[in-house]
Records
---
Amino acid sequence: MSGQGGPTSEGDTPRANADENRRQVLYWRLLARLFDPQEQPALESASMAVVDDVGLPAALLDPAVSVDTVVQRFPELAAELRGLMAAPDGDSRPDGVTATPVAGEAEVRRAALVSKLLLNVFATGAGSVTATRLARWQSDAGWFAQVLGCEPGELRRQPGQGGAAGLGGILAGIEGDLVRRMHLREVLADPALARQLTPSMSLIEQLLRDKSHLSGVALANAKALIRRFVDEVAEVLRTQVEQASVGAIDRSVPPKRVFRNLDLDRTIWKNLTNWSPADQRLYVDRLYYRQTARRTTPARLIVVVDQSGSMVDSMVNCTILASIFAGLPKVDVHLIAYDTRAVDLTPWVHDPFEVLLRTNLGGGNDGPVAMAMARPKIVEPRNTVMVWISDFYEFDRSQPLFDGIEAVHRSGVRFIPVGSVSSSGQQSVNPWFRQRFKDLGTPVISGHIRKLVFELKSFLT
């Protein structure tokens, strides 16, 4: 029992239980709508009563209403939305002592607002999507980013596996699904809407497949999106190339006698016999320098990429990677793409954007056609590396392709078969080829692009 100065903890219990029950109603509705878009009448009516009871608008429960619309109608909710992720304060009692935080009315309001955001962003349903719906989702995703402390669009641009980066990948995937379910040309024809698209592999694949049917504003916007994606991926790959280990130190080249090459530890160690106890000084009669010269060999890199529909990741990544290696000194890069036909893209190898515009994704695989184009490019076999990116599903021409590959390998060319080149490292390779590459001593390397960067740079520099 307590005096008249304040409520008892027992007196707080019914109110706390009621608030907790109201929160549970909202969260049960959230879960139900995430897994099943159909309304559950009991949960919907109970949630409506809760929202009304805490003074929030019924529009929060309408999935067709965007967060922007809610804020326009009820501007006072903007600040509350932006502070959703702030830790809730404890209840302050009249005697000035802060009690253990409980699910008060503020927490019930928070549950209603969180539910609105999560449903609008993650419950995208099925069926066709209009440009208006995509724009509404992008706006809601922007509010979601603000709640997490990010700028609009920033979250979806973050690569990686965990935390905000992983969540960014999920949002990019949702947006890609929405784009696939709508008329992309309608979006591209609207510059404002096209600018809001987040370039992703799935979107780029659609643009590359549809580019021959685009013109005017739509084609210009498609090219701008491809260019943005190429530039973003190129920046990541360029960093990986710079960070990868390079050629071995060439011990035959004397070290440059400059300050930045001074090996201070070795200099001190070698001159310890010159230490003067009387003077408390170390007299140095010889300086030692680090050897930094590395062996560099002019090399020819021939990249052959399967551009069939299943290899779009590889086509995009390898096109960009080839352009980066083409920028290295003394590296002669050639690029060939193939499906049932082969095309020599070497003249544009320095510009991956132009290369991608000249690709035609889809079709079957005819590796011998590509090999016929690649073999004449081999001038000095022992100074050549050939990277072949494919899933090696060749219909009935597996043996002719393998015979060509074996001949190239035995001539002295460094042959590197790659199952795929993607950020995830996922790969699928014809088991028949995988075993024969292993027997040949050239096993298929991991599909992760960092592994290919390492393999190439170790050979070329």
Note: Residues 1-11, 87-102, 159-164 have pLDDT under 50 and may be disordered.
---
Amino acid sequence: MSKKITTLLFDLDGTLINTNELIISSFLHTLNTYFPDQYKREDVLQFMGPPLKESFLKVNPGAVDEMVKTYRTFNLEKHDSLVTEFEGVFETVQTLSQNGYKMAIVSTKVRDTVIKGLKLTNLDQFFDVIVSLDEVEKAKPDPEPIEKALAALGSTPEESIMVGDNHHDILAGKNAGIYSAGVAWSAKGREYLDQYEPDFMLETMPDLLDVVGMEKR
């Protein structure tokens, strides 16, 4: 590693907080509202990661906005009952914060939903910078969200890393010229992420402390 990492950019869903069940349930509810009994759990994994409009455009171009509304209504209604924490996330993020690392959330979700998830898991106290779908013209894997986060934090690509559970996160990191780390607990599986050759693969979130050169306690 040519330069010490000082800055960490995190995806939210499936990376810091376990929204997998919420997202799968929301997609199943929406898709089966429009296409009854045509979609099962394994069918919706392909839609996890990209912005909602991009996903629904593939299946029903004439009703994209309607489907987004249906999805978000269900998603918000079920949010607090289905979202859980990933083991070791809070302690790791807290340790990084206490040791002066700069951190931001870079997500393809809208800002209100990002904040809702952070507050539910008490992670909101660690993130002053959030780059959501609302703040960008182009979402991940385009480098724009990462570049906005780095500008807000006053960081350079050489000292930064993007941590995520989807190929969009890994590719966004590469496109922005920063390090990337995949998480082995991705709903799509470790092998899926390995195809995109992240610089690091985290088995658990505390592994991130080793990546930035801090000893795990």
Note: Residues 184 and 190 are 5 Å apart (CA to CA).
---
Amino acid sequence: MATVLDPSGDFEAWRVPANDEGTDGYRPSADEPFMNPRQQEYFRKKLNAWKEAIYREAQGTLSQLQTDSLREADLADRATSETDWSIELRTRDRQRKLIAKIDAALRRIDEGEYGYCEVTGEPISLARLEARPIATMTVEAQERHERNERVSRDD
């Protein structure tokens, strides 16, 4: 798994499967037509592998919750355990939201809209899609969006 930093600085919720997981060694190239069927299938597999990895982690958390209970006699130990579980559950909640974004990306592939900026309609770079397969905007459009958000917040 490669780890990609999301804008909030959270590493855990944004783990993306390694480039070759489930892709038979194929990697999209700028030398081929953009979002041809092979590229679409590559990103579909990548997104599905990411989603499955999230489900596996969530199942592990669920199993752990069912087997471990907060039985620590010491109040400080109990507080530490509760804090750890709180962080774990927040991470799972972020991942639940991430699954919705993965599903939206899969729908865009099915509809032929995947890989194109929702603002400008231009192709999103393959490097950006490799790093963040749920991206919906080019880097430039995303930067403009974030600048506008920052200006709005400052007002």
Note: The longest strand covers residues 2-3.
---
Amino acid sequence: MTQTDVFTTAMQQSERVTGRIDEESIVALAEELIRAGGENPGGTEEATVVALSGALAAIGARTEVDEVAPGRSNLIARIGGDATDAGGLLFLGHSDVVPAGSGWTGEPFEPRRWGGRLVGRGAADMKGGLAAVVVAMAAVHAEAPEIPMTLLVTVDEECDASGAQHYVATEPAGEYTGCVVAEPTGMHIITACRGATNLRLEITGASAHAGNPDDGASAILAAGDVIRAVEEDDAKLRTQPDPDLGRACWNIGAVHGGHGTSIVADHCELDLDRRTLPEEEATTILSELLADASRAIRGRNRAGTDRLSVTGSVEMIMPGFKTEPTDGFVTVCQDAVQRAGGTGETGVWTAACEGGFISQAHSVPTVVLGPGDVNRQAHQPDESVEISELLTASRTYALIALQRSNPTTP
């Protein structure tokens, strides 16, 4: 067979595969997944996992449900190749959604179609992307059952990433050719993400009557010193940006402390978000913060300073990642997006996602690529996704799987 014949045969296969992908199948599955809910906090992902398991089993996938906590399980589905094959292209998603909240013009978990869009909590983040992946896997498998593909769906992505952390701690590394995170990117190919680390600081002081505050040691006043230290470090981080991802940064999300206006506070907690660059380590960030906090508290030299202490813990880690834009996997993704009707544009995210776990654990090129708008739609009332973009996404995923498994596939 000549090179031209190989190219023609591969092109025909691609056309057959994409021809099997229809809009209605994607939307119908996305609607089922939206109805399944999965609000987090709440630990209610089970219905979504059950719905996905059924859809994947129906297309011939081998599914494994791995319990992370009672009623909260990761889902791993493999299709194609040998019965024991854990390789091929890896798709990554999550089964939870943020709470519906208020401001909706209809029931958040009763999907509806309006103006060419699918509306419902999770439509963009990320029930639509998951549905597009499943339909793509079905189409590829029907035409090329020898191609292995894997879908990992984690629990608890929206809060503590406990599902992803459980996966990398317990699942052996697979021989994957690349990872596509189906988060909403407007079908732009995200090649790098900052990470996120959540920290909690606990400041302990000594209580006293408010009439004699020098008899105690105010943990709330000390918390103010720590906050100023965080601000100073944030200013320093502004001068050390990554050329692609920009700077790391701090946010103080919550302060809890004290017992009442007439009592010197003996306890105060700070909840902090630290956006990280791929090479940063959470334990190092925490140890440096504790050192800065202690210096800041001692530096004020207030009454009772020697009775103050500060401790901390890492509450959540979501590592960042970088895939070089020139990597062959990115080129494959660009070609697939363009052939499916998109632009093939690349970029980076200031948000975080679980792709960093896969990039680290499996040492594979990773991109974020999915239908929907993370800034304008995700986590908002009347969350929605363009139905036509769901179709583009599913065709893109199928083309990536075909080409990544066979470099001669156009």
Note: The mean pLDDT is 94.
